[in-house]
Design goal:
With about 140 residues, this protein is an alpha/beta fold. The protein has one domain: Rossmann fold (3-Layer(aba) Sandwich), CATH 3.40.50.9100. It is built from 5 helices and 5 strands. Strands 2-1-3-4-5 form a 5-stranded parallel beta sheet, sandwiched between helices. The protein binds ligand CA2. Ligand CA2 binds next to loops.
Length: about 140
C-alpha cells in the first residue's frame, strides 16, 4: 500500500513559533514520526511539502496511478484552494485531510475547507498524531 503525505505552506516551520497552536515538535520530527508510523503499519510512504499551490497540484496529479491513498494537510490553502480540491477530485485517490490544530475552534476564515470536500475523512485537533490516525484510517479503508 502506497501513501503520499502532502503538507502545504509553512508546515516546514513547525516548532519554530506558535507552539500553543501547533505544538513544539519540528517538521523534521514530523517526518521522522511519519516514517516510524508507516513502518509500523506496513505502509510505503512518501512525503512532500510545498509553499506553492501549483506544486501541490502537480504532486497530486503525479500521484495518479502511483499512490493508493493521500494524507493531506493543505495548511492555509485548505481555506482558499479550489485548484487543490479539483486535483483531488480529478485523481479520485482516497484522501484524508489532516489539521494539527482544531480549526473548528479558530477564526471564521478557517471554517471553510475546500480540499475537505474531496476527502473521505477529516482529522483535526489531534496534533501530529492526526497524521498517524489518517494513515491507520487509510490502511483500513483501502483494505476493505
Ligand atoms: O492546523 C493545521 O494543521 C493548519 O492546516 C495549519 C495551517 C493553518 O493555516 C490552517 O488553518 C490549519 C498553518 C501551517 C503552519 O503555520 C505555522 C505558523 C506559525 C508557526 C509555524 C507554523
Amino acid at each position: 500500500m502506497r501513501i503520499l503525505v502532502l503538507n502545504g505552506p509553512n508546515i516546514n516551520m513547525l516548532g519554530i513559533r506558535e507552539p500553543g497552536v501547533y505544538g513544539s515538535q519540528s517538521y523534521a520530527e514530523l517526518l521522522r514520526l511519519l516514517q516510524v508510523w508507516a513502518d509500523e503499519l506496513g505502509i510505503e510512504m512518501e512525503h512532500y511539502q510545498s509553499n506553492h499551490e501549483g506544486c501541490l497540484v502537480d504532486k497530486i496529479q503525479a500521484a495518479y496511478g502511483t499512490f493508493d491513498g493521500i494524507v493531506i494537510n493543505p495548511a492555509a490553502y485548505t481555506h482558499t484552494s479550489i485548484a487543490i480540491l479539483d486535483a483531488l477530485k480529478a485523481v479520485a485517490i482516497p484522501a484524508v485531510e489532516v489539521h494539527i490544530s482544531d480549526v473548528s475552534q479558530r477564526e471564521d476564515f478557517r471554517q471553510i475547507s475546500y480540499a475537505g470536500k474531496a476527502c473521505v475523512k477529516t482529522i483535526m485537533g489531534q496534533g501530529l498524531d492526526g497524521y498517524r490516525q489518517a494513515m491507520v484510517f487509510l490502511r483500513d479503508y483501502l483494505s476493505k
